[in-house]
Amino acid sequence: MILLVLSALTLAMAAGASMAWADEPAVTACSLPEGWTEIARRQPRYVVFGELHGTQQSPAFIGNLACALASRKQRVLVAIEQNARDNAVLQDAWRLPTARFGQALRLVGWNGRKDGIASEAMFGMVVHLHALKTTGLPIDIVAFNSDSAQEKHFPHLAGQGAHEAAQAENIHGATIRGRYDQVLVLVGNIHARRARHGEGAGSFDFMAARLAALGRVVTLNTRYAAGTAWNCLAKPGVTFTPGHPPPSDAIECGNHSVTSNSDLKRAPFIGLGAFPGEEPDTRYDGFFWLGPISGSPPLLPGE
């Protein structure tokens, strides 16, 4: 166990307390989760963590892992599912001192978003990582989610293939610009799938599969015990017209109950292969277990 300087926000998040970011860092500890050694033996270029958006536990898990790796002198890049068009502003903020970082970060992709990608816990993780960086630990960050302009570079790809390809391109581009020992990608678990979606002309590869063509990938699906997650879901009975955006009143964002068939009653850990008691899931190389989950609301409520 290695004592490190982390942000006060991270301490609040780990305790499940109400979120309130602070400029002054506090002292806490981080350690490698059980199972990481097996991941490291594979020497992956990218480790993709497919999460359920809107929990406190998933960003805390990645923040702890990045902390532990960087403490061992490994240069770490953490890739987050914020829009790549905001990445230049994020990099400018990343160079700021601790006292100015939190306010600058609020301008990068959080304002007005109601989903779990813009949660208090995600914000806390990034503040945490920046606090570690200011102490001298080798941690960088990149926003990699694609937008419609970038997706036009892939007109030959069907369905959401262009979106997936653009995500992979952004992560790979950031990777080759730095000399990283570990690249940790936190993304919705659909994008973390290895398996090709669909058949024939309408099929496409998810982001993790696109990354696998650029470097060795280990991709992990989130698993958890029952709890809650802050996300945006279709209201019961609502129907959608293919090819058209959903009506504004058809989506409900909030802290929703999440069920689970399992409770391992274990601390968070990583496992390769099948989840205990289940058949192998060929879409992923393994899983990361979070235990009971709790929802994290948006940092800045939408208008």
From TrEMBL:
Signal peptide coordinates: 1-22
Keywords carried by this UniProt record: Signal
Domain of life of the native organism: Bacteria
Protein name stated in the entry: Haem-binding uptake Tiki superfamily ChaN domain-containing protein
Lineage: Bacteria, Pseudomonadati, Pseudomonadota, Alphaproteobacteria, Sphingomonadales
